[in-house]
Amino acid sequence: MKPIIDLINVDKSFGDVKALKGVSAQIMEGEFFSLLGPSGCGKTTLLRTIAGFEDLTGGVVLIDGKDMEGVLPNNRPANMVFQSYAIFPHLNVGENVAFGLRRKQLSLSEKSEKVKEALDMVGLEGYENRAAHTLSGGQRQRVALARALILRPRVLLLDEPLSALDKKLREQMQTELRRLQRQVGITFILVTHDQEEALIMSDRIAVMFDGQIAQLDSPFDLYTRPKNREVANFIGIMNFLPGSASQAKKGFLDVTVPGLGEITISEDQAPAGVNGTQVGIRPEMLTILLDAEQTSDRETPGKVLEIDYYGDMSYYSVAVEGVTDPLSVSMRNTAGRKALNKDDKIRIGWSSESLILLD
Asked: 3-state class of 327 per DSSP?
């Protein structure tokens, strides 16, 4: 797999504000790539520099090996789907989708065939003559996608296209977008602030803070092996406990954690090395041992403080002796599982392989 986009030390300033600070990354041909981060981190600005809507203050953007300096957006092999969809209300669906073809020397029958193919691709077969103002939010999003895809760009840029949809429709469209990307085989670059959305849809994710990429990895590695506390705290839920480390045998560290004791972990679990001061563990990596027959590599006694019920999951806030802040423990609500109540005394099972040592 070769890179379709090379970002080399990309800088962008708006007056005294540095929106992008030396961003470098390679985005591969045919991958679903996400730019993830909180509001104001620079992800949309980076997307707009790729599209050509923002001039660079410094650095280089290459698309398919060609420097995009001075190349206008309409001459780049990329199309963009905006957050607002930008559907023209005075045009019908077919006219909206065909808008990008207006400069192409095509006959009416050729344009009609291309519109039909694009609408079929996004599941809107037969919608050519539908008035744009009658469409639902999900349908407008599909029309925007069809309009972008009709030109068969090398890269499709998506600026939070699902943010205006309700939860159920957003989840449905996440699946549809991923299916569509695999079907057409072109590179999708998605901007989102929704961690779950990025994890579900992406081949790789660049997590951004303050105009820089903090970590670029697969969803699995981002979740299980975040490189610092900022990334770990942003991706999902993480319990943080103070810890101190010393070198054990080669390839391993001894970590002392109040409330949990001394644990030996591999260096792979310690991005911060012996200088790490925080131990992280995900709520689902802690198991409530519901009867005496259940055992675990490690056990810690605790007391249930609060219970948050989410239908398929319950999250328990648990007090553990020696730990300042309560631990969050999640359990799937399976049939026949014993229900817990506030103030119940419990045993928490965990494994040393679930811990990660951060700075």
From this structure: strand
In this structure, the strands spanning 244-247 and 252-257 are antiparallel
Domain ranges of the chain: 3-229, 237-359
CA nearest neighbour of 52 among 83, 75, 21, 22: 75
> What is the second-level CATH architecture of the domain 237-359?
Beta Barrel (2.40)
- Asked if 162 and 174 count as a contact pair (C-beta separation under 8 A), the reply is yes
Closest by alpha carbon to 244, among 281, 270, 282, 226?
A: 270
Query: In the predicted model, is pLDDT for residue 84 greater than 80?
Result: no
The domain 3-229 belongs to what CATH superfamily?
P-loop containing nucleotide triphosphate hydrolases (3.40.50.300)
C-alpha 266/C-alpha 352 separation (Å) is 9
Residue 183 CB neighbour total at 10 angstroms:
9
pLDDT tens, position by position, 172-186:
888 888 988 998 899
Taking 90 as the threshold, does the pLDDT of residue 142 lie above it?
no
Q: Tell me the per-residue pLDDT of 88-108, one tens digit each, with 9 for 90 and over.
A: 888 888 888 888 787 777 778
pTM higher than the cut 0.85? yes
3-state secondary structure of 101: helix
